[in-house]
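User: Just a sanity check before I run the rest of the batch. Below are the structure tokens for the first item. I only need the designed sequence back.
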């Protein structure tokens, strides 16, 4: 595997397992020894693992059990490996083509991914899970060893004590499920080349052992200038049936990626430039001293599952994630109109195309997350009602260790000569903050079945948060102690076979601190916890209809949501709570199969507004980069022949969105069409699946999104037409 050559990055690679990790190893080892001694008297049954379905309107991260999607009072989606591969989805940012409620929020080449759900940008430090445990998404998360990616929509205070509203993303790791022998080779017309292997099997007298190994190597490239790079992945997952009803699972992944990032363009003064006026190959991060962004991740979990009998079961899971990165770029931001800075445009370029160019370097960043989760689930029958109880305790430690950064202006660039060379300025002068957090979360949930028609859920999560924020210049650290309570409740009524209406209400909580490195008068000060609230009303159904063309198997749902969230920002030179944002809207989805036809679609219409802000001209306005509507459609037709061939088409439409907080510049709506064809060929004991896909079939030129980052408005163009060919060999 490739290793970074940065010396400090190498030093931090060597680390010992935490005391918490050693403790859980001891606990699991003790349980394993006990279970194995019991196993002498019992036969060891095989482990039955159900593979993730291609697309499901439910997610395990919701914590509502294994019931069918139409019974669960939440909106969620789970995209299996096959769906992701057929849709040419290779990174989390590609989920925006599969779900209407999910849109971009500063997604570019060579950097980690940001997602927006229901108009709220997810917090990469808090809104992501892997195997149900907290992780940081401030890295490029590989999908090669993932069985599915789950999206939970809405305020997630029930599933996570601290998280931004909008939802959660959970990565489900591939685990042993019998014999698997798969190799994949992929190439596109920009020169990107991927090779991966997925091997798994079970063994032992009673198939009590299981192993799954994934290896991937990719030469990265795009049509954009100076974006060559590479990435690697090695991952394994193993399990051992200790005794009847007792299983231990272990998995680990190591990933590395190095690629030059691509910053966005911006407004030209008060004008929105046309996407047709710029080469789709343009990369303003293209100086002689430009260095790639490097991201390395080591993540693993250990889990002990126990069947306690009489419908009760427990799990104990320990997880650890260690991320290291070097974040570097020639970064355009703002425009100095005169040397005195008396007329400085901080959020856009000058009208004539000039921009300030900075040498940004943040070397040797370390992010560490450790979590220990203990959970008990079971059923009780009391007074004619069934109670499905879930209780859990989660202990998490998060550490962010960074150094003072370089953020130095090197000159004024211009779009008329975007690759003019400037001298580097790499001296680190920009003070930022290290963070150390410890959280303890206690959760209890009761799913109460009153009758076949009525069911209710009551849940409460209590979070103890201890946080320390320390500036990198060695000055006084800022501590925080907060206790947070986030309740959730839902009621569902089955008014027709496999058709259910529901109503739910819940809270979420966030923590904010005034950033260092800027001009805030309260830099480092911790703000009171920000409480968001959501109300949701919906209906969901699953059915099979007899038609003249055969059986139509379908699932559908529709819902209305209302979320209010406090917003923190600049208020008179201080970083304070500044009113809030209210997002309400309608969502709907449908998916079905009829004979050789299959289709899936989702849509969202949203009304988002700011309120209570002290900033002039903001109240009543729509937050930036929130499309008014979005529609995502996918359809496929399968020809059953000696060489089965499937044609697939995906249509992605996102409505107009405001570019600036004052709602003076509107980014137009856009529609993109992707197509693909795949054929499955049997060659003796081997099966080869050939895929050819075209992203942006009609080579549409448009601005895809307009996020505001570091107070600056950015415009990201739609990816130009790209052709991808791949062969998947199952042997």
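Assistant: Here's the designed sequence for the first item:
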């Amino acid at each position: 595997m490739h290793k970074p050559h940065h010396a400090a990055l190498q030093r931090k690679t060597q680390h010992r397992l935490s005391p918490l990790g050693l403790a859980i190893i001891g606990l699991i080892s003790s349980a394993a020894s006990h279970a194995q001694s019991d196993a002498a008297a019992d036969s060891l049954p095989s482990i039955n693992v159900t593979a993730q379905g291609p697309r499901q309107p439910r997610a395990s991260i919701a914590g509502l059990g294994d019931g069918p999607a139409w019974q669960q009072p939440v909106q969620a989606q789970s995209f299996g490996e096959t769906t992701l591969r057929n849709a040419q989805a290779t990174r989390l940012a590609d989920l925006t083509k599969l779900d209407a409620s999910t849109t971009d929020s500063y997604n570019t080449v060579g950097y980690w991914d940001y997602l927006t759900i229901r108009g709220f940008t997810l917090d990469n430090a808090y809104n992501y899970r892997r195997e149900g445990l907290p992780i940081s998404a401030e890295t490029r998360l590989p999908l090669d060893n993932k069985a599915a990616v789950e999206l939970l929509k809405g305020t997630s205070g029930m599933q996570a004590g601290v998280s931004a509203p909008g939802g959660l993303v959970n990565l489900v790791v591939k685990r042993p499920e019998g014999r698997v022998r798969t190799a994949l080779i992929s190439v596109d017309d920009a020169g990107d080349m991927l090779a991966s292997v997925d091997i798994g099997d079970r063994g032992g007298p009673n198939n009590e052992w299981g192993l799954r190994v994934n290896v991937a190597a990719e030469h990265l490239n795009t049509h954009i200038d100076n974006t060559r790079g590479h990435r690697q992945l090695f991952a394994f997952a193993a399990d051992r049936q200790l005794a009847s009803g007792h299983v231990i699972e272990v998995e680990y992944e190591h990933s590395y990626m190095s690629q030059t990032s691509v910053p966005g363009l911006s407004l030209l003064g008060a004008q929105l430039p046309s996407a047709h006026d710029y080469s789709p190959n343009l990369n303003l991060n293209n100086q002689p001293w430009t260095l790639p962004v490097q991201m390395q991740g080591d993540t693993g979990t250990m889990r002990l599952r126990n069947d306690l009998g009489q419908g009760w079961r427990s799990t104990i899971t320990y997880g650890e994630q260690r991320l290291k990165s070097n974040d570097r770029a020639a970064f355009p931001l703002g425009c100095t109109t005169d040397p005195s800075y008396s007329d400085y445009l901080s959020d856009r370029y000058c009208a004539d195309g000039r921009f300030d160019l900075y040498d940004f370097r943040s070397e040797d960043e370390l992010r560490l997350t450790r979590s220990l989760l203990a959970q008990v689930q079971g059923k009780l029958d009391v007074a004619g009602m069934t109670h499905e109880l879930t209780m859990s305790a989660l202990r998490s430690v998060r550490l962010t260790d960074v150094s003072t950064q370089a953020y130095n202006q090197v000159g004024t660039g211009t779009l008329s000569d975007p690759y003019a060379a400037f001298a580097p300025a790499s001296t680190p002068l920009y003070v930022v903050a290290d963070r150390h957090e410890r959280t303890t979360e206690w959760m209890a949930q009761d799913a109460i079945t009153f009758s076949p028609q009525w069911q209710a859920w009551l849940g409460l999560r209590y979070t103890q948060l201890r946080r320390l924020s320390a500036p990198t210049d060695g000055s006084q650290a800022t501590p925080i102690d907060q206790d947070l309570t986030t309740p959730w409740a839902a009621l569902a009524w089955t008014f027709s076979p496999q058709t259910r209406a529901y109503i739910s209400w819940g809270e979420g909580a966030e923590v904010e601190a005034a950033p260092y490195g800027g001009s805030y008068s309260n830099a480092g000060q911790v703000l009171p916890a920000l409480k968001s609230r959501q109300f949701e009303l919906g209906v969901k159904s699953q059915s099979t209809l007899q038609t003249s063309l055969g059986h139509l198997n379908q699932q559908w749902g529709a819902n209305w949501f209302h979320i209010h969230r406090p917003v923190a920002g600049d208020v008179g030179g201080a970083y304070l709570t500044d009113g809030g944002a209210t997002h309400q809207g309608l969502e709907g989805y449908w998916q079905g199969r009829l004979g050789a036809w299959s289709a899936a679609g989702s849509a969202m219409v949203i009304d988002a507004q700011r309120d209570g802000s002290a900033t002039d001209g903001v109240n009543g306005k729509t937050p930036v980069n929130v499309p008014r509507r979005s529609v995502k459609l996918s359809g496929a037709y399968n020809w059953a022949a000696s060489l089965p061939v499937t044609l697939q088409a995906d249509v992605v439409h996102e409505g107009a969105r405001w570019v600036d907080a004052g709602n003076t510049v509107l980014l137009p709506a856009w529609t993109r069409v992707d197509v693909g064809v795949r054929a499955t060929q049997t060659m003796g004991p081997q099966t080869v699946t050939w895929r050819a896909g075209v992203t942006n079939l009609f080579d549409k030129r448009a601005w895809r999104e307009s996020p505001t980052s570091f107070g600056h408005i950015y415009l990201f163009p739609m990816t130009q037409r790209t052709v991808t060919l791949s062969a998947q060999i199952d042997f």
